Amino acid sequence: MTTVVQTPETLIDGPFGARLLIQADDFSLVEHPIAPRTLAGPSHAHRHEDEYSYVLEGEVGFEVGDEVFTAGAGQLVAKPRGIWHAFWNPGDRPARILEVISPAGFERYFGELAQLIPPSRPERDLAGLAELQARYGLEMDFTSIERLSREHGLESP
Q1: Domain count, the chain
Q2: Is the peptide bond before 103 cis (omega within 30 degrees of 0)?
Q3: Which end of the chain is more exposed for a tag (fewer CB within 10 A), N or C?
Q4: Averaged pLDDT for residues 91-104
Q5: Cβ contacts of 148 within 8 Å, gap of 6 or more
Q6: Are 53 and 70 in contact (CB under 8 A)?
């Protein structure tokens, strides 16, 4: 049975946001607003799901495997499970993407993540983050934050 979210549900608010638009049995649709010069996701890989990013507004930088490129409005980027990837807004204007996640389930990660990071908590809960990532089959390379920020002129999270 498919569940459709009638009113978008904000899961994360901030320079990198997440709004749940559709939650179905086999996929979910999440909108990600990304503020200018913001790293949306450091290098990471998903064990259980594929992601497809459709750029709605602005330009979004991507690192998928060994490829680094920028996609603009109307372009679709595939990020298959098991492949390391990162994404960011390299520009001076806001960007927005629609993220199709298949199969569904990972969209709940964003709501749980919001409870573990500022402003919900004064400091990042690193043990909680590690447990959350393990539960969702997510491997993240936090050392990529500094490199991606430096290489693409991004503000540090």
Answers
A1: 1
A2: yes
A3: N
A4: 97
A5: 39, 42, 43, 63, 86, 88, 154
A6: no
